[in-house]
Amino acid sequence: MTTARTAAPGDAVRLSGLSKTYGSFTAVHPLDLAVPAGSFFALLGASGCGKTTTLRMIAGLEDPTAGSVALGGQDVTALPPYKRPVNTVFQNYALFPHLDIYENVAFGLRRRGIKSVKQQVGDMLDLVQLGGLARRKPHQLSGGQQQRVAVARALINKPEVLLLDEPLGALDLKLRRQMQLELKRIQTEVGITFIHVTHDQEEAMTMADTVAVMNAGRVEQLGAPADLYENPGSTFVANFLGTSNLIEAEVTGTSGGDVHLVAAGQRLTLPAARCAAEATAGGTVLAGVRPEKIALAHRDDEDAIPEGRNRVPGRIVDSSFIGVSTQYVIDSPVCPELEVFVPNVERDGRLVPGAPVVLHWNPAHTFGLDAAQDIDAGLDADAEEAAHLPAAPGRGGAGKDSAAKDGTAAEAAV
Amino acid sequence: MSAATAQAAGPPPARQAPGTVPAALRRAAGRRRLTPYLLLLAGAAWLLVFFVAPMVYQASTSVQTGSLDKGFRVTWHVATYWDALREYWPHFLRSLLYSGIATAACLAIGYPLAYMIAFRAGRWRNVVLVLVIAPFFTSFLIRTLAWETILADQGPVVSFLNRVHILDATSWLHITQGDRVLATPLAVVCGLTYNFLPFMILPLYTSLERIDGRLHEASGDLYATPFTTFRKVTFPLSLPGVVAGTLLTFIPASGDYINAELLGSTNQKMIGNVIQSQFLRVLDYPTAAALSFILMAAILAIVTVYIRRAGTEELV
């Protein structure tokens, strides 16, 4: 620990120009990243985006092609895995099948020559609520229990950073939800920096303080979950993280912090502060709005819509009732497939497929993106995972959501 | 051998349909119940004719007395066992010693080789595996005779060993004699090691190949050096292969007589040679049969203790 400190003391991990190429394929483009100590950091992306390679380079299981890895201010790029103060929870747990749970958890301590491990192993098994199963073999445990053993086996070493490689991927949906909260609780309790790799955007938003969205070997955008959700910087992030309606619109001018747009004859307004692209009159931007921000009115009630809201006419193509909300697909002149999630508070019987409607929303909920990019980026990246979001519809703003989750985590920690 | 008989003897649990069932269903259930026995029939008949019957015959031979001219008769003369053991115990000891050393040598040579095939051979894996099995394409006898040529007194191997004074060291250890390798314990052990090496490599390879590579990563991630990873993860997980390989080497090697016959002198005779000559030259069938049973009992005892110690049932 005598090497010169190159990073700010507050950073648990600092990656500088870290890259990895396999032959002519670049898995990770030169990457600069700082993860603050004590944070829960998620690397989110579709399979093959380089997130696992990045994690493995931090663990030392993969040699970087260029760049450096610093842990707690110390450059560890040249160190083998067993000399790095990090531990990993592997995707399929990789528990030692010939050792019982107790010995699996004690493995790291014993390797460092610690003789009396009983107390620590006991405490750690209690933390993950597996106290009674110490003498079982891994194959006698359920998937969720094995997952907790893997976490305990890594955490007991009090690493500077805990790396989690898709740790919940093998679990079913219900168990995954439960483990998400449990991992968050454990992280709050032990205060160790977690770096979590996942392709599940909901998982990343539920658990992490900071999410880095990766695409094709690059970090596309980095920020707090609510911030990423509300202000996506690219079409990939807008589409990959939840669902977005993107409308191609022409800029007609700006006034008083607002950008005025016109799309298929419809005038729209967008706060200049939320426009990631340069808005000059005559240029094009993509105006985005989340499905749950849009309200739906029958064409007959158009006059009742307050002034100053963005409005778009259309026709209902499809509707599906899913309990807490109804999801509509709207065909409109500005976009052939607009998605709208309407909470089921008062249901309007006239809103059936074929009905003429008007969509309206607060202009402040509109974000602007550069029109020079692929409007469908991130849509088919992981069609299956993207399908998770409609299962939890009508999230009334991710800000409220994550606030609620922080509350849960804090309660669990007490 | 004992495992084979146990398999044949243990009848599979028959499922009985309770209560009243239609006749057709009952017939079908009856057929299903009979199927396992029908499938066992061929194997059971084979074992009965070629294993159980000869064993019973040899057991009776071992307690007979008489001579080739007057004929042998069962007289329950158990003393044959004691006499055989008293006279030939050095051969037993030598057999177990030679095959034990050969087994250890096979393990020492075979483990690194199996490890490389399983983890490092990449696309050469199948080629190397074929090379391991390749010696089986020629007969056991021919291969052993080839070793006679390799270790010949004027051959390049012996003259090289002589020149670098290795033979001085081995002579001092009494495993070679003068500047000869042939007709010494070293030659017999070399032959045994060579002939049974594939039986060690193959089970080792199968058990190593099954080990999940991520366990090595996990071990390294948990502060184990590569050597500790081998000691604490790889080797324990390959133990079933070690046990299978050592048994497949030790058991046939301890009963072998061809290596001692072709590569050794009268001073290296193993128990297999004694049994062979008692049966075919001296024509003392009771002693030969008694020696065979003593060898079987000794191997069975050693194997039982060994498996208990290795604790294979824990590792599956």
TrEMBL record, chain A:
<dbReference type="InterPro" id="IPR008995">
    <property type="entry name" value="Mo/tungstate-bd_C_term_dom"/>
</dbReference>
<feature type="compositionally biased region" description="Low complexity">
    <location>
        <begin position="405"/>
        <end position="414"/>
    </location>
</feature>
<keyword id="KW-0813">Transport</keyword>
<keyword id="KW-1278">Translocase</keyword>
<dbReference type="Pfam" id="PF00005">
    <property type="entry name" value="ABC_tran"/>
</dbReference>
<dbReference type="GO" id="GO:0005524">
    <property type="term" value="F:ATP binding"/>
</dbReference>
<keyword id="KW-0067">ATP-binding</keyword>
<dbReference type="GO" id="GO:0015594">
    <property type="term" value="F:ABC-type putrescine transporter activity"/>
</dbReference>
<keyword id="KW-0472">Membrane</keyword>
<dbReference type="GO" id="GO:0016887">
    <property type="term" value="F:ATP hydrolysis activity"/>
</dbReference>
<dbReference type="InterPro" id="IPR017879">
    <property type="entry name" value="PotA_ATP-bd"/>
</dbReference>
<protein>
    <submittedName>
        <fullName>ABC transporter ATP-binding protein YdcT</fullName>
    </submittedName>
</protein>
<dbReference type="InterPro" id="IPR017871">
    <property type="entry name" value="ABC_transporter-like_CS"/>
</dbReference>
<keyword id="KW-0547">Nucleotide-binding</keyword>
<dbReference type="GO" id="GO:0043190">
    <property type="term" value="C:ATP-binding cassette (ABC) transporter complex"/>
</dbReference>
<dbReference type="InterPro" id="IPR003439">
    <property type="entry name" value="ABC_transporter-like_ATP-bd"/>
</dbReference>
<dbReference type="Pfam" id="PF08402">
    <property type="entry name" value="TOBE_2"/>
</dbReference>
<dbReference type="InterPro" id="IPR003593">
    <property type="entry name" value="AAA+_ATPase"/>
</dbReference>
<keyword id="KW-1003">Cell membrane</keyword>
<feature type="domain" description="ABC transporter">
    <location>
        <begin position="13"/>
        <end position="241"/>
    </location>
</feature>
<feature type="region of interest" description="Disordered">
    <location>
        <begin position="389"/>
        <end position="414"/>
    </location>
</feature>
<dbReference type="InterPro" id="IPR027417">
    <property type="entry name" value="P-loop_NTPase"/>
</dbReference>
TrEMBL record, chain B:
<comment type="similarity">
    <text>Belongs to the binding-protein-dependent transport system permease family. CysTW subfamily.</text>
</comment>
<dbReference type="Pfam" id="PF00528">
    <property type="entry name" value="BPD_transp_1"/>
</dbReference>
<dbReference type="InterPro" id="IPR035906">
    <property type="entry name" value="MetI-like_sf"/>
</dbReference>
<dbReference type="GO" id="GO:0005886">
    <property type="term" value="C:plasma membrane"/>
</dbReference>
<keyword id="KW-1133">Transmembrane helix</keyword>
<protein>
    <submittedName>
        <fullName>Putrescine transport system permease protein potH (TC 3.A.1.11.2)</fullName>
    </submittedName>
</protein>
<dbReference type="InterPro" id="IPR000515">
    <property type="entry name" value="MetI-like"/>
</dbReference>
<keyword id="KW-0813">Transport</keyword>
<feature type="transmembrane region" description="Helical">
    <location>
        <begin position="96"/>
        <end position="115"/>
    </location>
</feature>
<feature type="domain" description="ABC transmembrane type-1">
    <location>
        <begin position="92"/>
        <end position="306"/>
    </location>
</feature>
<keyword id="KW-1003">Cell membrane</keyword>
<feature type="region of interest" description="Disordered">
    <location>
        <begin position="1"/>
        <end position="21"/>
    </location>
</feature>
<keyword id="KW-0472">Membrane</keyword>
<keyword id="KW-0812">Transmembrane</keyword>
<feature type="transmembrane region" description="Helical">
    <location>
        <begin position="182"/>
        <end position="205"/>
    </location>
</feature>
<feature type="transmembrane region" description="Helical">
    <location>
        <begin position="288"/>
        <end position="307"/>
    </location>
</feature>
<feature type="transmembrane region" description="Helical">
    <location>
        <begin position="233"/>
        <end position="253"/>
    </location>
</feature>
<feature type="transmembrane region" description="Helical">
    <location>
        <begin position="37"/>
        <end position="57"/>
    </location>
</feature>
<feature type="transmembrane region" description="Helical">
    <location>
        <begin position="127"/>
        <end position="146"/>
    </location>
</feature>
<dbReference type="GO" id="GO:0055085">
    <property type="term" value="P:transmembrane transport"/>
</dbReference>
